[in-house]
Structures are given as structure tokens and as C-alpha cells.
Design goal:
There is one protein chain. It is built from 19 helices and 2 strands. By secondary structure, it is mainly alpha-helical. A two-stranded parallel ribbon has the order 1-2. Helix 12 packs parallel to helix 17. The two termini are 27 Å apart.
Amino acid sequence: MTKVFHLDEFLDSRPLSFMHMKIILLLALTMLIDGYDIFAVGYVLPILAKSLHVEPHALTSTLVLQQAGLLFGAVILGPVADKFGRKTTLLGSVACFAVCSILTTQATTLGTFMVIRVISSLFLSGVIPNTVALASEMAPKKRRAAAVSITFCGYTGGSFLGGLVQAFILKSFGWQGAFWIGGILPLIIFPILLWQLPESLRFLARNDQQDPRIAPILQKLDPRLTLSGRERFVARDPLANRGKAVPADALFKGILLPLTLLLWTAYAMGFMVSHVLGSWNTTVLNTVAGIPMQSLSVVIAASSVAGIVGTGTIGLVMDIFGPARTLMFYFFGEVVALAVLAISDVHSSQLIFLFMATSYFNAAALSGLNAFAATLYPSRIRATGVAWSSGAGRAGAMFGPLFGGFMLEHHFGLTPIYLTTAVPALVAALSICIVWRLPQSEARGSEDERLSEAIQDSVAPDQAAI
């Protein structure tokens, strides 16, 4: 006789195990490589421009088109992951952008370099939504935000790797060395992911409730679990009764409509700030402020460490104080940090600490947005919801390189650059503030629980939230 096994109850009732930690570690390592590769051009931009015999601002179009590729890839690969699986899409993305990164080393003209980077960005966009979805769907409900934020530490840690490249690789191997690293590392991790990373249990159960891959994963999560082999694995799905409707349709229904639009605004503004800093910080401080590249490597590495701390801890803070309230505070903190940086002397000893503060709030806020999106959307549209939100972020990020290139071309100083960069961070903070003040359901409980219940009711009335 077939026995119904409720995956949600099992997953949400388990403490974090060795299997959970292994999954988080593998996903964080994948994000490390992704975070490094996305900003690789920014780390080597002054040297790359000299090698290609162009001015630094001439690479603006490359940075903008790279963001366009990330946007297009996010829109396409999110639904692909919801159909074919998080692990499958993630592995395909890793393999393809690894090959593209290696091909980048062979570029000898600006046009060739641009084309390869745009193609690379299409596959780079598949990493964040799938790692976030996997981390969220495998973790217990009470630890989802923490799991996502810890996973996102890898993305932030990519800039630390970039600092090491600036300090030790560029002088000996040139700008090509940065992209050899960006290609070889994902090829090394690929077989490990293939062998050790499980597919999302909720995804497997949604496609086949008796999928033979489910039981072994469950027993790794809890070795004490005994299964008869006749179980039918069920995951609650608020969208189960929507027939063949396109999953993305649910992003714009009921309370999800204003939440999605506000979330997209916060993503766009947050990513814009991140990519102004990630794409142009090295060039601005080197060419405008005259700070040597090796000195900048120390600043970049220290900022990355602060970003990792912020990324790794914001999930815990969100679990305690609620996501909207926490994100609002962190974005306002970023505004203050950028404003102080704008009016400070970057040649003073406080430079490192100012950039560390900026990186702390920026990285934590972006990580928190991903955790927030992962908890807002139900399993059937989670990868799509996170991917399309990330796509909105990429749309905002496209303006980051344009802004930096415009400033460099017109010889703006550091103060207007960093003060203007604080404006989108302020818009993001206000967007999250509106989310926090949106009418919630009348159900009792924490902010997270009220928001989750309201969202699930708007998608599929009378269905339990996952």
C-alpha cells in the first residue's frame, strides 16, 4: 500500500544537518566563482584598456552589454530551471561560462572581447537564481533566510578573489590571468557538483511523486529515517490548481503584484549601486585618485571580508526582526556610508574602513533581497520569481557602467560620483519601507508569517503556505 510522505513537514522539522551544510558549502563555492567572474572586467579594467589600446571609458559598452546579457539570461533560465530542475540548469550554466571565460583570454580586439563577455553573461545569470532556490528549498523553513544569506557569502567573496588577482596575478600574467582563473575554477568544481549536489526535493516531487532519487536524499538528510520504498512523496504547492497557466503569471496576481514591483525596484536600485562600485571602483580610485593597483587590492580584499560578514549574518537578523524591516535598515545604512565616503579624503587611513562599511551594507542588502524573494514566492515559481527579480536587478545594473563611464569621460570628481551613487540606495530603502507598510493579513504571528499567508492566499485561496 502506498504511503503519503509529506516533504514539507519533514524538511521544516529537521535541524541543520551535515548534509545541509555540505549543500550550502557547495552552493557558496559556486557563487564565489560566479561573483568573481561577473566583476572580473572591473578588476582588470585599467590594464585591459591599455592592452587593447583604448581609454577606460571605451569599455562602458562592454559592461552595459554584459548586464543586458545577464538580464536576458535571467529571464530565460529562471523558467528553464522551474521546468528542468535547479541542479541541471546550474550545471549547464557553470560549464558554459567556464568555457567562455577561457575563450576570453584569446581576445585581441575590443569587439571580440565584448562578444565573448556578452555570451558569458548569458550563462553567468543562471547561477544566482538556482543556488538561491536550492538553498531555500532544502533548508528548514525557520532557517531559509540564513541558508540563503550564507550561500550568498560566496558571491560576495568573489571580490576577495578579485583582490588577490590584483595583488598577485596581474603583474605576472596580465589581464588574461584573471580570466584563466575564471575558467579553470568552475571546471574544477563541476564534477564535484555533479557528484555531490542533490536536486531540489520539492522540484522532484512536483514532477514525479515516486521519483527514486528522493528517498536517498532524505536518508542523507536524516540517517535515522526508515522508508519502505512504497512512499508517495508530496510537497504542498499553492499553484497546483492553476492548470497549465504559465507560472510567471502568478507574479502579478493579487498582493504579489505590488510586492513584485516594489521588490524589482529595490533589486534594480541595489544592483545599480553594486555595479557602479564593482565595475568602476578600481578605475576611479586608480585613475582619478591616483591610488596604485597593489594598494587597491588591499582595499578590495578588506571590503570583501566586510561584505562576507554582512552577507553571512543578515539572514539571521532577518529571521529575528523580519525581512522588510531589516532590509530597510541596511539600505539606509548604505546611503549613510556612501555619503560619508563622498565627503572624506580617500587618501587617508580611513579609506579602508569607509569602503568596508559600504561593502558591508551593500552586500548584506543584496543577499537579503535574494532571501526575501525566496521566501515570498512558492516552490512552483520560486526560481522564476528569484530569476526575474534578479533580471530587474540586471536592468538597474546596466545603468551602473553607463553612469561610471559618463563620470570618467567628463572628469567628475569622487564626491559627485559617490553622492549620486547613494541616490538609488535611498530609492531601494524607500521601496522596502513601502513593502513593510503594505496591508498584511489579519493572521497572528510574525511579520514573515503574516506576509507569507497573505501571499499564498492571493495565489491560491485556502491553500497552505509552503
